[in-house]
Queue: 2 jobs
Job 1
Amino acid sequence: MHPERLPVVVAGGGPAGFMAAIVAAEAGVQGVHLLEATPEPLSKVRISGGGRCNVTHACWDPRELVAHYPRGSRALRGPFSRFAAGDALAWFDDHGLELVEEPDGRLFPRSNRSSSVVDTLRRAAEQAGVTLHTGLALQAAAPAAQGFALELRGQTHPLTSGQLVLATGSHPSGRRLAGALGHSLVSPVPSLFTLALAAEPLLALAGVAVDPVGLILELPDGGSQRQQGPVLITHWGLSGPATLRLTAFAARQLHTSRYRARLRVDWSGGRSQADLEQLFQQARSTQARRLLASARPWPELSRRLWQHLLHRSGVEPERRWADLTREQQRHLISALRDSVYAISGRGPFGEEFVTAGGVPLGEVNLATMESRRQPGLFLAGELLDVDGITGGFNFQHCWTSGWIAGQALALQLSES
Ligand SMILES: Cc1cc2nc3c(=O)[nH]c(=O)nc-3n(C[C@H](O)[C@H](O)[C@H](O)COP(=O)(O)OP(=O)(O)OC[C@H]3O[C@@H](n4cnc5c(N)ncnc54)[C@H](O)[C@@H]3O)c2cc1C
């Protein structure tokens, strides 16, 4: 690789690295080299969003956007006030990719194919003059006169760079590089996973989706987390947006408890005790002769879930509404509002998953993404201790941190 001194090296050909490299090169930086360890850059973008790539989320206000980041949260207000979801939308539009909003706020490329995002980033990098090296991993980096001494895997000749961007995602090599350059690391744990319930009759309802469901996770250390929203019952436990949000916010606590906890579930759609008593009263009078199994207290309640709750409450499904005792009603309302399940472990990941942990935000100047430990070193993307819930928020942080790093290093070079 020539010349031996490279002005800017970006390690990591993922969304954060591409964004940093393109923005720096478009701002006039000559000699931006983007190193990707594997033969194929942007591989997570390609598989993301079930092959559709959920690029960002229609959440335009930075103050609201930060609420979607269990790690990062309010510290991201500054970065998002510089480059948020609306800026990402405009950036992609300027680079020839139209994003389309879905009813739930997620933004996808109009083509519905992640390859459009990959192609857009690759084309923008090429047009801006970024040199992409694939199959080339940064193995070691040490501070040197006016920059960094770099070692590339499989290369023996010495190489230096003026500035270095680490955008290596959750890969251990990037954490090792950041550690060697003076950073501490919050240990990585998985986020955005589903929940397993062992030997639970509820599993027979696999495929039933309920919305909204209230979830309260009670952890052995006395802590708790709440979420509300759609839940999908699967053959191993619970999935769906509310479950994924819950595991994202409780990722660390669940890891500490070895994924054992109690889950209190409100299947009633948030109805109060009084509302439910009234609905039961109505059912007793309007459906008095009908069997409980075939007549639900309200029509939107899933039939299979209702039958499960009858079984759980010990109420015979062949009983008629008119014969439901006060005691049985109490048990049923309690099962609807507050069924308790034992979490037995972590279920498989959903369509999107990320790692919580990485370089603490306090060690980075969030106005520039430059390291506070090592001048000339910039950090972006999932390598940082930032992660979002599902819905495009993880990529948004990559666009934001990559954009800020690219701008800042260009400014630094122009001033030097
Ligand atoms: C299946 C799946 C689906 C997802 N879907 C979505 C979605 O739809 N929306 C969303 O917002 N988020 C999604 N995510 C999360 C998102 O993919 C990540 O948050 C994002 O890719 C992180 O970007 P990054 O650039 O920080 O790291 P990465 O995308 O991991 O890129 C880092 C790159 O650096 C390379 N690398 C590592 N070490 C070195 C080294 N030493 N030298 C050179 N190169 C190196 C790696 O090979 C990799 O290509 C999904 C994740 C998964 C796993």
Job 2
Amino acid sequence: MVSEFLTTREKIFFLLEETDKPLTARQIKEILHLDSEKDVYEHLRHVALSAKRKGYKLVVQYPVCSNCGFMFDDKLTKPSRCPRCGSTKIAPPRFLIRRSSL
Ligand SMILES: [Zn+2]
């Protein structure tokens, strides 16, 4: 493995391309020993763009309110509270990368 020569964004790309199950930003952070979840979300925005250029896409399971089931279908980050019921119990978004279908 030459993983020590890869940038963080490349590591995130390969991790999400190889994973069977979608990962949360926290899991990505722990697997790659990164500093903060916030950084992971920032990296993911860039990874989504570069994946697209390479013929891949970032697949997102959007965050869902654990209390009322409200779906945040435009969020790549973890929302702090639900606009419908006000609950702060939000299941975070999960990510993986797959080849775009041709
Ligand atoms: Zn809710």
